[in-house]
């Protein structure tokens, strides 16, 4: 194949080269300006946040040292005994871990149900009234922005110590988080089924049930599973403020310097979290995969 | 508009029987799924010993708290200034934590991305260590760092760095693996070495995505940074936990209001920046 290589006249070439140089220079300038702003902001934040690099350098050895001290001692001759001594509280911790998972599950389920109900009210394509959409969105935003552990702190005072405040706190936070994600899914649905049900005389509930829900359900379940994963982590620290689960034992072990207990409980939490991450990821991929082939 | 006669309806049902036959198998699956979910919920109520008799009392008490919270009031100007200062600390914790976590995570994410480092062992170990770090909650990191550098916001910054390191490492490596490999091949075919292909073929593609993920997490970290004060790592959470413990409800609601305003402000700013960088594309 023959192609003619176009040759520009000298003046035109120079003009293009100049323009290229100008564009590159402008980009450089923008990058420099951006970095300068970033560095200035980092310095200001460092001053505000009491960053003390000297203290950091002086004390950094404590960080690996802490992990060294919580590491269990194993000797080759009595490895089995060491192991059973390290995990002495296994039956109790397993139970507490089960409680933690149940707190996360119950919080996620009730939060998902509330979020499911509220998300349709927060979708501008299903609700005419701007007021309802606005109020629902602000409510969801409030539930989402206040961290679950702050709700837990307040609920512990109202309901007393135990898993109940933990479940409620996670439920409220989940309502906010899932409600927002659900509403975003609902706003992106195909409007034709909705119009179809409306045109054949369906009530609002019927429009939602037959027009919207079938389109969004698999996405909803996937988001809810992801939230469950996050809530398992959240429930593990609910005990820090007295709201049930394994967090109570963990913070006690940290505060009282029961070093080997700290590592044992941390290990159990990490393994559980990883296991549930793995399971939910599998299920989510299957759900989304099914949606991809089915639709 | 004419409505279907019952004859026509019957004809349609006859012509498309599969659309009108109840699908027992899928119904059974749904029933079993819902039944298990409800059963597990009931089991949870029994196992956790949820005290329903305390529910009404608690709700009444909660209503009382809510009444006491209104109107939000910091008490005095000096207190208000102190809280604003604490809010500044929180935002600083979130900012430096996000920045530090992202800077540390970038090299590790490159190692953990299959299309940059083809070595399976490196890939496996970098992935697993990132998972382990992500498995530890930010409050636990804060507890550990308080023990290292003492109480205060610096411990909070380090905690956010640690927890973000794990998250960003995973997100970044996934973004890098999803990148189009043609530009990198182009650089290779023009005689560049592996480093060149990463620098000129890969990074320019993924950089905007990474930046938008960082901005997205800045907002979410502002929320996490409000809670690490509960274990003594500085910021507004310290004040909040204190005021809840001494039942100063008006101050509590003032602090919550401050947090809401700050988070939505940062959400707005980071959203604007994100759209400026990558346009209206979803952040995975």
Structural commentary:
The complex is a heterodimer of chains A (295) and B (284). Helices cover 80% and strands 0% of the residues of chain A. The longest helix of chain A has 39 residues. Chain A is an all-alpha fold. Chain A is built from twelve helices and no strands. Chain A has two domains: 40 residues; 205 residues, MetI-like (MetI-like fold). Chain B has 284 residues and is mainly alpha-helical. Chain B has two domains: 52 residues, no CATH class; 210 residues, MetI-like fold (Orthogonal Bundle). Chain B is built from twelve helices and no strands. The radius of gyration of chain B is 27 Å and the shape is flat. Chains A and B meet through helix 1, helix 2, helix 3, helix 5 and helix 6 of A and helix 3, helix 4, helix 5, helix 6 and helix 7 of B.
List the quaternary state of the chains.
heterodimer
**Series of secondary-structure elements of chain A, N-terminal to C-terminal:** HHHHHHHHHHHH
Structural class of chain A: mainly alpha
CATH homologous group name of the largest domain in chain A? MetI-like
Number of H/I helices of chain A: 12
Principal-axis shape of chain B: flat
Mass-distribution shape of chain A: extended
Low-confidence stretches of chain A: none
Rounded radius of gyration of chain A (Å) = 28 Å
Distance between the termini of chain A: 45 Å
In CATH terms, the superfamily of the largest domain in chain B is MetI-like
CATH class of the largest domain in chain A: Mainly Alpha
- Roughly how much helix do the residues of chain A carry, as a percent range? over 70%
- At the first level of CATH, the class of the largest domain in chain B is Mainly Alpha
- Unreliable spans of chain B are none
Q: What is the average of the pLDDT values of chain A?
A: 85
- Helix percent of chain B reads over 70%
């Amino acid at each position: 194949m023959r192609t003619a290589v176009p040759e520009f006249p000298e003046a035109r070439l120079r003009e293009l080269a100049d323009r290229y140089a100008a564009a590159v220079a402008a980009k450089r300038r923008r990058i420099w300006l951006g970095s300068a702003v970033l560095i200035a902001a980092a310095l200001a934040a460092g001053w505000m946040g009491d960053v003390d690099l000297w203290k950091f350098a002086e004390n950094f050895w404590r960080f690996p040292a802490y992990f060294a001290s919580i590491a269990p001692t194993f000797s080759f001759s009595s490895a089995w005994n060491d192991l059973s001594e390290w995990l002495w509280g296994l039956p109790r911790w397993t139970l507490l871990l089960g409680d933690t998972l149940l707190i996360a599950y119950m919080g996620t389920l009730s939060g998902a149900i509330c979020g499911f109900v509220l998300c349709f009210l927060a979708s501008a394509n299903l609700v005419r009234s701007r007021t309802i959409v606005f109020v629902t969105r602000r409510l969801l935003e409030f539930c989402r922005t206040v961290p679950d552990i702050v709700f837990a702190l307040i609920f512990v005072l109202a309901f007393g110590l135990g898993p109940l405040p933990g479940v409620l706190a996670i439920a409220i936070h989940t309502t906010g988080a899932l409600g927002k994600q659900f509403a975003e899914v609902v706003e992106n649905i195909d409007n034709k089924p909705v119009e179809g049900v409306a045109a054949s005389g369906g009530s609002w509930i019927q429009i939602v049930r037959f027009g919207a829900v079938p389109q969004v359900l698999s996405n909803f379940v996937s988001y809810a599973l992801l939230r469950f994963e996050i809530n398992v982590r959240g429930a593990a620290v609910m005990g820090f403020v007295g709201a049930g689960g394994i967090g109570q034992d963990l913070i006690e072990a940290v505060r009282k310097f029961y070093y080997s207990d700290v590592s044992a409980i941390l290990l159990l939490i990490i393994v559980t979290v990883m296991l549930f991450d793995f399971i939910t990821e599998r299920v989510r991929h299957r759900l989304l995969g099914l949606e991809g082939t089915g639709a | 508009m004419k409505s279907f006669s019952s004859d026509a309806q019957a004809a349609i049902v006859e012509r498309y029987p599969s659309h009108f036959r109840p699908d027992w198998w899928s119904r059974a699956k749904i029933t079993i799924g819902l039944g298990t979910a409800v059963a597990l919920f009931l089991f949870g109520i029994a196992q956790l010993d949820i005290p329903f008799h305390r529910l009404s009392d608690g709700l009444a008490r909660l209503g009382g708290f809510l009444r006491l919270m209104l109107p939000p009031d910091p008490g005095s100007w000096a207190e208000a200034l102190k809280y604003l200062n604490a809010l500044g600390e929180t935002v600083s914790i979130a900012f430096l934590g996000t920045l530090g976590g992202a800077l540390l995570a970038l090299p590790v994410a490159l190692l953990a991305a299959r299309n940059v480092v083809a070595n399976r062992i490196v890939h496996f170990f970098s992935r697993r260590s990132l998972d382990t770090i992500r498995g530890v909650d930010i409050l636990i990191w804060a507890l550990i760092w308080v023990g290292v550098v003492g109480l205060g916001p610096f411990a909070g910054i380090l905690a956010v760095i640690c927890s973000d390191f794990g998250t960003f490492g995973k997100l970044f490596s996934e973004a890098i693996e999803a990148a189009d490999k043609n530009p990198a091949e182009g650089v290779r075919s023009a005689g560049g070495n592996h480093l060149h292909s990463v620098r000129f073929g890969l990074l320019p593609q993924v950089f905007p995505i990474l930046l938008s993920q960082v901005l997205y997490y800045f907002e979410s970290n502002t929320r996490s940074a409000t809670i690490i004060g509960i274990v003594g790592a500085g910021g507004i959470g310290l004040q909040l936990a204190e005021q809840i413990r001494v039942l100063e409800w008006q101050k509590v609601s003032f602090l919550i209001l401050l947090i809401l305003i700050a988070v939505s402000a940062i959400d707005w700013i980071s959203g604007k920046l994100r759209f400026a960088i990558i346009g209206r594309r979803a952040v995975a």
